[in-house]
TrEMBL record:
Organism: Methylopila jiangsuensis
Protein family (similarity comment): Belongs to the class-III pyridoxal-phosphate-dependent aminotransferase family.
NCBIfam families on file: PRK06105.1, PRK07480.1
InterPro entries: Aminotrans_3, PyrdxlP-dep_Trfase, PyrdxlP-dep_Trfase_major, PyrdxlP-dep_Trfase_small
Taxonomic placement: Bacteria, Pseudomonadati, Pseudomonadota, Alphaproteobacteria, Hyphomicrobiales
GO biological process: biotin biosynthetic process; gamma-aminobutyric acid metabolic process
UniProt KW Protein biosynthesis keyword: no
Protein's UniProt name: Aspartate aminotransferase family protein
Length: 453
């Protein structure tokens, strides 16, 4: 039954990333408050937050210190900008801290408000810097099928998922999509992970050759693809890809929007998966989602090129009103302080084995074709036939059904195609991980019964 609040929601809120036809009939889950890794709906029912919101709420809910950091900054200076001739301490201190943590030698940090804006900025920087370096033909950016880099015109173009392109007249020119490193779905019969990685690197090499290396500027990659279905590449994938990029002088942009700040047990996913990025996009766990803030970390050579260009043409014409918003920056700084003080990396590394063991055990469930993941992120892909890997008829929306059952059981997880993704807050305990997987198993059992009926 749709409640009054749900009806008001359906009548007024245009929901992002939702089926706008079915949502009014189903009604949104309307949340009211949170505590630790639990959120509560308006009727007071608790849910274990198995997605950390949208891969972002690392520290869970109710962190008074973060509330205080925001309130204190709001009292002192709620707004100041970074445009011509202005700056403020929270942005400076945050940039300094990010330079210290950066997975590559960093020069500066450009602040923005969302992961999409960060990747939009990445694309504009690639174009601008190559103009500045006197090679205006070197502009193309290669992303990957199933990648998710956001929804602005540029970042949605980088995204490699059809519903971000169809009817939006995207992608824009100059974007190419290479193969997706998902062995379970895209390996040839009998192809080992190693051989699969070798083939993908060879295909990338061929793509760059076909485009003309002098026209290809950058390759962008999430260390682990998140919204494409939690896809963990083979172990040797990035070193092989990196060699191809180096051969053709193509820079590597790491989209650390999900993997950054501890998700894979290190500060950055790049380090965990042996990537050597030139630039990095950050967002989400940067502030543990207590305030919207994102950024791009750039190396010396880009910074120098930007400065030289300003000497020639003046103003660097890019930036947002809320770039480095002082309240968001103060919250992010406090978040990083808490991560360090509570030794969040040690905690995450301590719970990863238990999380991955429970996740991989779901591979034995009759509905699960693949249980995949690394660090503190994973997914189960639901199939109609485990042997042939045959998918369910898309109209059955099997993963959405499982997510609905999980919600009944008091667990929030997310459907991505036929996969159910799991990405809990980093502060989750081992006992809460058990509860998460107990509830997910119950939901999968109910889904199996529903599918068989
Ligand atoms: N990049 C990655 C890897 C993401 O997962 C997301 C969002 O989930 C984005 C970029 C876009 O971030 P936002 O939704 O903050 O614009």
């Amino acid at each position: 039954m749709v409640t009054n609040l749900q009806a008001r929601d359906a009548a007024t809120v245009l929901h992002p990333y939702s089926n706008l036809a079915t949502l009014p009939r189903q009604g949104s889950l309307i949340l009211e408050r949170g505590e630790g890794v639990f959120v509560y709906d308006v009727d007071g029912k608790p849910y274990l937050e198995g997605m950390a919101g949208l891969w972002c709420n690392a520290l869970g809910h109710g962190r008074e210190e973060l509330v205080e950091a925001a309130a204190e900054q709001m009292r002192k200076l709620p707004f100041a900008h970074l445009f011509t001739g202005k700056s403020h301490d929270p942005a400076i201190a945050l940039a300094e801290k990010l330079k210290e943590l950066s997975p590559m030698k960093a020069a500066k940090v450009f602040f923005c408000n969302s992961g999409s804006e960060a990747n939009d900025t990445q694309m504009k920087l690639v174009w601008y810097v190559n103009n500045a370096l006197g090679r205006p033909q070197k502009k193309k950016i290669i992303s990957r099928i199933k990648a998710y880099h956001g929804v602005t015109v540029a970042s949605a173009s980088l995204t490699g998922l059809p519903n971000n392109h169809i009817d939006f007249d995207l992608p824009i020119p100059g974007v190419r999509h290479a193969g997706c490193p998902h062995h379970y779905r895209f390996a040839e019969a009998g192809e080992s992970e190693e051989a699969f990685a070798t083939r993908l690197a060879a295909e990338l090499d061929a793509l760059i050759e076909a485009e003309g290396p002098e026209t290809v500027a950058a390759f962008i990659a999430e260390p682990v693809m998140g919204a494409g279905g939690v896809i963990v590449p083979p172990e040797t994938y990035y070193p092989k890809i990196q060699a191809v990029l180096e051969k053709h002088d193509v820079m590597l942009i790491a989209d650390e929007v999900i993997c950054g700040f501890g998700r894979l047990g290190e500060w950055f996913g790049s380090t965990a998966l042996k990537m050597k990025p030139d630039t990095v996009s950050i967002a989400k766990q940067l502030s543990s989602a207590y305030a919207p803030i994102a950024g791009v970390i750039i190396p010396d050579w880009i910074d120098e090129a930007l400065t030289r260009q300003s000497e020639k043409i003046g103003v660097f014409g890019h930036g947002f009103t809320y770039s480095g918003h002082p309240v968001a920056a103060a919250v992010a700084l406090k978040t990083l302080e808490i991560y360090e003080r509570e030794n969040i990396l040690a905690h995450v590394n301590g719970i990863i084995p238990g999380f991955q063991a429970r996740l991989k055990a779901l591979g034995d469930h009759p509905l699960v074709g693949e249980a995949r993941g690394t660090g503190l992120v994973g997914a189960v892909e639901l199939v109609a036939d485990k042997t042939t890997k045959r998918s369910f008829d898309a109209r059955r929306a099997i993963a959405a059904k499982a997510v609905g059952f999980a919600q009944d059981e008091g667990l929030i997880v997310r459907a991505i195609g036929d996969a159910v993704s799991i990405c809990p807050p980093l502060v989750i305990t081992s006992a809460e991980i058990d509860l998460l997987f107990d509830r997910l198993t119950a939901a999968l059992d109910r889904t199996e019964a529903w599918a068989a009926a």
